[in-house]
Amino acid sequence: MKNIASNWFKSLQDKICLDLESLENQSILNEDQFRATSFTFTDWSRDGGGGGTMGVLRGGRVFEKAGVNFSAVHGQFPAEFASKIPGADKDPTFWASGISIVIHPRSPLVPIIHMNTRMIVTTKTWFGGGIDLTPVYPTDEDTEFFHSQVKNTCDQFDTSYYDKFKKSCDEYFYIHHRNEPRGVGGIFYDNLNSGNLEQDFEFSKAVGNLFINVYRPLVKKYFNIPWETAQTQDQLHKRAKYTEFNLIYDKGTEFGLKTGGNIEAIFVSLPPMASWQ
Amino acid sequence: MKNIASNWFKSLQDKICLDLESLENQSILNEDQFRATSFTFTDWSRDGGGGGTMGVLRGGRVFEKAGVNFSAVHGQFPAEFASKIPGADKDPTFWASGISIVIHPRSPLVPIIHMNTRMIVTTKTWFGGGIDLTPVYPTDEDTEFFHSQVKNTCDQFDTSYYDKFKKSCDEYFYIHHRNEPRGVGGIFYDNLNSGNLEQDFEFSKAVGNLFINVYRPLVKKYFNIPWETAQTQDQLHKRAKYTEFNLIYDKGTEFGLKTGGNIEAIFVSLPPMASWQ
Question: Least CB-CB distance to B275: which of A248, A273, A277?
């Protein structure tokens, strides 16, 4: 199953990058200023075992910075982490594979989006992941569309998932020092092992497949609409708060930095430009 | 002594802001693009007691963002911090006053600088502070000039200070996940109570007075030299790493955020624009 999951995450990376490149080519805005741009892929290997492929599209017409990372790593958790991770307290051996995406669009009208799904194996096995949206200008229509699509996906597996995972998302993606949520939410789940791992994998695949289907319409709704300079300022400020969350609170970022992860791959989530005016 | 120190920090804020405004007016570069600009002052009060004055100059000709903060706060340390702070483990009552400066110049040729001095009173009393330089393009000449000025100031008080406080600075302002120092160093000291508090206050005053005398020549050396777009990119990348340090490692930032400090005043140290390309 580890191989099957890992291969699937890798193939999802390829598919999503093609889908995003196709959106680059569909936009007709800023044709004179910006060229439709492709992903660049960089393989990296981890000292302790395994590695990954970082996919980044920089300076595109629709996407100012789009990071689509795949990794499959294994080894021993450092002692300080092993005690915090299910099934690793006595044996720190682990295997983990997943895909992680953060998209910073050029237009302040197109929302930032984040999606991640992963499989982790210690003496226990589980899935984790989620998808959440961070518009600079939230609208009820977009928020309802996004959440209804996420709920539909959840409901196909377990009708308790959406409420439970939405709550986890709201709690996790919260900028405590500003008393505000990072975005308009979505779902976040971890330690998912329902007793039917095949089914849990299918759920994670469904979340992965949802990504482009829920993001494409939001991108296409806005990507040909011109914007004002003042809106770019709002976007730079929103991105600054996104950066604050990722550097101060995000456990994945902290884990990566403290375990000698690949800095470029970890920080692919950070915005191409942000402003604390 | 609390009043004397606090009044002195406040008067230093006023003096330094005038000095920086004078540098704004002396530059002849970018006259068409940017106006010489003045500081804006905002008073804030702290829920637990005391408050401060945030001084910010934004969008100037020489300084893209210059933050010069004064504060004088008092109250009770939250339990989780009291145990970590000298003399506060049994009685969490504290008083603290100081000045904190971070300057983000417009030109990538002019170094970023940070200076801070403070007096803290619990059941113990001490001084802390420091000054350190972060050039985008370090040169031996500038680094040697900066350190020699800092050493001269230290040597007037105790010939062991410079080596000891330089080492603390190198250890503290280190970006661990990148295995690189934040800048070219300076001095950093804390819990300074030599047994002669008057003398320790004089030392902190000397560090405070050093700021403009060591920074003015560095600003004037570069502030009329045009720069290239590629150098602005280097600057934005250096600022991104500065942001990483402040959000991930800086204890002052963490303390402020966790104790409900004034967000605007805390983040006045963050750059007006930064890039993770």
Answer: A273
Residues in chain A, total = 277
- Beta carbon pairs, A and B, within 8 Å: 55
| ipTM over cut 0.85 | yes
| Set of chain B residues whose Cβ sits within 8 Å of the Cβ of A270 | 240, 276
Confirm if B132 and B187 have CB atoms less than 8 A apart. yes
Which residues have CB under 8 Å from A199's CB, separation 6+?
A: A157
Query: What is the least distance, in Å, from the CA of A276 to any CA of chain B?
Result: 5
Q: Which of A93, A101, A157 is nearest to A129 (CA)?
A: A101
Rounded to a whole number, what is the distance in Å from the CA of B175 to chain A's nearest CA?
11
Considering only CB atoms, B272 lies closest to which of A58, A247, A275, namely: A275
Cα–Cα distance between B224 and B226 in angstroms, integer?
6
Alpha-helical segments (H) within chain B: 2-26, 79-82, 140-155, 161-172, 197-222, 229-248, 251-258, 263-266
**Size of chain B, expressed as the number of residues it contains:** 277
Q: Pairing relation of β-strands A180-181 and A174-175?
A: antiparallel
pTM: 0.94
Would you write out chain B's pLDDT as a tens digit for each of its 277 residues? Answer: 999 999 999 999 999 999 999 999 999 998 889 999 999 999 999 888 999 999 999 999 999 999 999 999 999 988 878 888 999 988 999 999 999 999 999 999 999 999 999 999 999 999 999 999 999 999 999 999 999 999 999 999 999 999 999 999 999 999 999 999 999 999 999 999 999 999 999 999 999 999 999 999 999 999 999 999 999 999 999 999 999 999 999 988 987 887 777 888 899 999 999 999 8
Nearest-CB residue to A270 (from B58, B236, B276): B276
Using an 8 Å CB-CB cutoff, list chain A residues near B274: 273-276
Q: Enumerate the active-site residues of B.
A: 114
